[in-house]
Structure formats: structure tokens, C-alpha cells
Amino acid sequence: MSNPQQLRYSKEHEWLSDAEDGVATVGITEFAANALGDVVYAQLPDVGSTVTAGETCGELESTKSVSDLYAPVTGEVTEINEDVVSDPSLVNSAPFEGGWLFKVRVAEEPEDLLTADEYAAFSAG
Amino acid sequence: MSSSPLRRTALDAVHRALGATMTDFAGWDMPLRYGSERDEHLAVRTRAGLFDLSHMGEITVTGPQAAALLDHALVGDLGAVAVGRARYTMICREDGGILDDLIVYRLRETEYMVVANASNAQVVLDALTERSAGFDAEVRDDRDAYALLAVQGPESPGILKTLTDADLDSLKYYAGLPGTVGGVPALIARTGYTGEDGFELFVAPADAEKLWQALTDAGSAAGLVPCGLSCRDTLRLEAGMPLYGHELSTGLTPFDAGLGRVVKFGKEADFVGRAALAEAAARAEQNPPRVLVGLVAEGRRVPRAGYAVVAGGEVIGEVTSGAPSPTLGRPIAMAYVDAAHAAPGTAGVGVDIRGTHEPYEVVALPFYRRRK
């Protein structure tokens, strides 16, 4: 599995796109999606709410377990992926594309986000 | 869990070549899923699935008093089982608590194979050995003598027929006969844990890979796929089948679990737990304990084992197993609830899902029943 080079990654297995007009897209990595198994329910943060880097902001349910969703950055949620709400399997089939979770207006970004290569090493090990 | 290395089945290399996600199950390194567990589940419901169940614990009981020993050691009437047939039964403690649920095959007049859950195999072996004192019968640990493959799903008879001369049409549910499948000697049993028609094939470990490959080849046109333990769990949950450690435990008698029918008081033999079980039966009659029911979610959040079942702000039960149901398209659960709330359609029942009371409908088990 390959992690797109243009994204950055958290140790909680979220990815973050470069911000466009201050708004970045967040999802979970393919590694995380594979570990979860079939995602059947995604509880995403409310649009307009503020998420805080490193804190939980939702949950993903799979057949076997429920996992917290962590915010990789601090900021206001501007949009959630309604396609994932209605069809959570997108998280498994296209974690880096159609399975994105929410968009956030970045107020503050932690310094310890990983590059694709750093995340690959981290998740391998 | 234990720090000892995980045991690997005879099919371990096959699972790894298929890219399975593996999991520790009762000390065994077992395939959890190969791809999507939902797809595997639906394949078993609509076509066929192939499982490695070699972690199950086989114990052979032989000798002139094999039947008498089992009638003493287990709650069922094993002496009444015809050669070639099988029974679902239980082994209980003296106080009536369930040590394990079992399938017992009568292979010959004087030979039975007891199949225990992997997590309880040693406990069952020890109990049978201890209870065999004074009987002219031998209890043998055959866990390493067998690999166990299962083919489950509506296409499974058609697939198996291409690989064996055995008379599958006359092989009834809960029956087993020796035969040859794909050139491999096997005990062919029409049993399973999925709610579908299907077969379990007990073979020598050295033959397991050959049989797996033969079944894979024979089943490919019919849509057979390899299936892991994750979908096995959702399949048995939809079928309302109990799982030891969830619906069954030493803290419950068969009557507490709604399975009092497996206790055969009519048999002649005195059996371990008889007195306590007779009391448990009377208690269940007069003062119904919590009842095992089905719950179907109105929403999409999934109940998990241990979550509280609530009504009117009070805890009225506990979830024992829960999962998203691929067949129903909604989360489902089995739960023990107070008798007052156990009737199908009881209003106002919910599950406390991490602090939120989510509404659930009480239904009769099973959630799913195949069309014959």
C-alpha cells in the first residue's frame, strides 16, 4: 500500500491535505482502514464545530470494533463527506480519495505531523 | 493472553499466501478475514464459503462403555444417538454451570468424536478424563490428529458432489459419514455454525492443503470464497447460535441460556450436574431468569458485548454479542434481558452505547432463517 506523498499524516492514522484557501481535507489512511475492516458507520464532527489536534472528534464502527477518530489539526469543520455517511464502505474502498471524512479551516497545526515516508515507517512498525 | 507462541494450523501457509489478516483466537493464529468480511458473509448466504476451523478441539472416546461414559459426563442422551449421527450437547459442572457446548458424533457403536471449542478443549479433555474413572472407555486427545475444513452455503452440496462419491443426498443435517473428498480420506459431516446448509470435513493435517485446493478449484465457478472467523461470527449471530464466552459461561446453566432442551433428565444414567440442573429447571419454570433475546437497532450504532440494555432509565440486561448484520443491513445483538422486557415488540428498550441510549427493537431469535 502506498501513502500519497503530497499528504501529511498523524500517529493516529489520519491524513491531512495541504490547505487550499486555509481549508484542509482529513481522512484515515489505508493502513487504518485495513486494520478496521469493513467500516459500517461513521460519526463525523458537526459542521461548524471546532476540533482540536490530537483529540477525538468522531468514531468509526467496523464489524469487530469501534475506533475513535482524532483530529490531526485544530480548526473549524467546514464540511463533512455525506457520501461516507450514507456509504461508509468508501472509507475502505478509497481511503485517500472518495472516502475522505471532513474539511477543516486550519487554525493551528501540530509540529509532529509525519511525511508519507515517515508514516510508512511508523505504521510498519 | 498467554505469552506462549500462537499455534498454527496445517493451512497456515495457504492463509498467508492469500493475504489473510490473522488474529489470535484461543491461542491459535487464525484467519480473521481475507478481504471484506461483509463480502465473505454474503458469499456464505448466497453461494459458498470455505473455512479453516482446525482450532476446534477433537476428543475421541472409545471402548465398550463409551456411550455410558458420555451419558455420565454430558447432559445429553448420547447412547440414543445412532451411528453416523451427531448431537449438539453440553458438558456441565456439578453445580450446573456450562463448561462448554459440544457437537458429538457417533462414529461407531463404541466410538464417539467430541468436538469442543478451541478455548475450552483442554478443560473438556480434563473433565472427560476425570469423569472416565471406572468406565471401560478411553478418552483420547485428538486435537493434533485432525484439520477441519468447512464448506458452508447453498452451493456447498453441489461443490462437494463434484469431489466425492459419498451419498450426500441421504446425509442429513447433524449426520456424518466417512468418505473420500478430492482424493483425501475425510469424515464428512453435515454440520456448521452459519445458519446455512454445509459440511464440515475432518481430515489428516497432512491432507489439509490438498483438500483446500480441491475445494477452491471445484467451487470457483459457483463463487466459493475463503472465509475468516470474522464472518463466521456474524453468520452465527444472525442464525441466533450461542458462542461460549458470550452467551454461555460457567456462571449460567443451560436453562439460564434458554437451552434447557439439551438436558435429558429422562436418560437412565446419573450424570454430572443432574441435581443442580433439576433445581435450575424448576427455578426457570417458577421465576424466569433473564431471557436471551434478539435486538435490532433502529439506528446505525453497533452494540458490543458487555453494553447495558436499558428501559425507562434502568438497566434491564446486557448485550452478549453484537455486530452490524450484513443480511439485515442494521446492527443486531443478542442480549440477556429481564423477563418483563423479553417479549418480541416490547417498547422502550435501548442499548447504552457509550453513554447514549439508542433505541432497539426486541425480536425473537434467530434473526435469519434460511429457506429450506
From TrEMBL, chain A:
Q: Spell out the InterPro entries in the cross-references.
A: 2-oxoA_DH_lipoyl-BS, Biotin_lipoyl, GCV_H, GCV_H/Fam206, GCV_H_sub, Single_hybrid_motif
The record ties this protein, via PROSITE patterns, to:
BIOTINYL_LIPOYL, LIPOYL
Q: How is the cofactor bound?
A: Binds 1 lipoyl cofactor covalently.
Q: Which organism is it from?
A: Streptomyces ruber
Q: Which domain of life is it from?
A: Bacteria
Q: What does this protein do?
A: The glycine cleavage system catalyzes the degradation of glycine. The H protein shuttles the methylamine group of glycine from the P protein to the T protein.
Give one GO biological process term. Answer: protein lipoylation
Q: Which residues form a coiled coil?
A: none
Residue intervals of the Lipoyl-binding domain: 23-105
One of the Pfam families matching this protein, by short name: GCV_H
Q: Which Gene3D superfamilies match?
A: 2.40.50.100
User: Which NCBIfam families did the record assign?
Assistant: gcvH, PRK01202.1
The protein's matches in CDD domains, at most eight in alphabetical order, are given as: GCS_H
Record keywords: ATP-binding included?
Answer: no
Indicate the quaternary assembly: The glycine cleavage system is composed of four proteins: P, T, L and H.
> Required co-factor?
(R)-lipoate
Q: Which family does it belong to?
A: Belongs to the GcvH family.
Record-level GO cellular component terms = cytosol; glycine cleavage complex
Q: Please give the name of this protein.
A: Glycine cleavage system H protein
PTM sites of type N6-lipoyllysine? K64
Keywords in UniProt for this one?
Lipoyl
Automatic annotation (TrEMBL), chain B:
Keyword Transferase present in the record's keywords: the answer is: yes
Give, as one word, the top-level EC class. Answer: transferase
> From the UniProt record, which GO molecular function terms apply?
aminomethyltransferase activity; transaminase activity
Identify the residues that the record assigns to the Aminomethyltransferase C-terminal domain, covering every copy: 290-368
| Keywords on record | Aminotransferase, Transferase
Query: What's in the GO CC field?
Result: cytosol; glycine cleavage complex
Key word Transferase present in the record?
Answer: yes
Name the positions where substrate binds: E200
Q: What is its EC number?
A: 2.1.2.10
- What Pfam families is this protein classified in? GCV_T (PF01571), GCV_T_C (PF08669)
Q: Supply the SUPFAM superfamilies for this chain.
A: Aminomethyltransferase beta-barrel domain, Folate-binding domain
Name a single GO biological process.
glycine decarboxylation via glycine cleavage system
Q: Which reaction does it catalyse?
A: N(6)-[(R)-S(8)-aminomethyldihydrolipoyl]-L-lysyl-[protein] + (6S)-5,6,7,8-tetrahydrofolate = N(6)-[(R)-dihydrolipoyl]-L-lysyl-[protein] + (6R)-5,10-methylene-5,6,7,8-tetrahydrofolate + NH4(+)
* PANTHER family (UniProt xref): AMINOMETHYLTRANSFERASE, AMINOMETHYLTRANSFERASE, MITOCHONDRIAL
Subunit annotation: The glycine cleavage system is composed of four proteins: P, T, L and H.
> Which family would the database say this protein is a member of?
Belongs to the GcvT family.
Q: What does this protein do?
A: The glycine cleavage system catalyzes the degradation of glycine.
What name does UniProt use for this protein? Answer: Aminomethyltransferase
Record organism = Streptomyces ruber
The protein's gene is named gcvT
